[in-house]
Design a protein that fits this description.
mainly alpha; 73 residues; 4 helices
Length: 73
């Protein structure tokens, strides 16, 4: 968890993905599909990268719980 560049990049991409999902939910507008085409190979890569960043960010929970345990003991 010490790679700040990777952490910031993953967080930024996940935020962009969250904004895209917000646009889909509110306006039924898929920004990724609008920019790269509906399920083109490039848009699929963008969706995969966003998903991988989200999965990577799950490790933040483990880091937070580890930090909390060290404070209590």
């Amino acid at each position: 968890m010490d790679n700040k560049y990777l952490n910031c990049t993953a967080l930024t991409i996940a935020i962009i993905g969250a904004i895209n999902w917000g646009l889909i939910g509110i306006f039924r507008f898929d920004l990724v599909a609008f920019i790269f085409g509906n399920m083109s190979w490039l848009s699929r890569i963008v969706y995969i990268v966003v998903a991988l960043c989200g999965i990577y960010l799950l490790t933040f929970y483990m880091h937070l719980f580890d930090r909390g345990r060290s404070v209590e003991t």
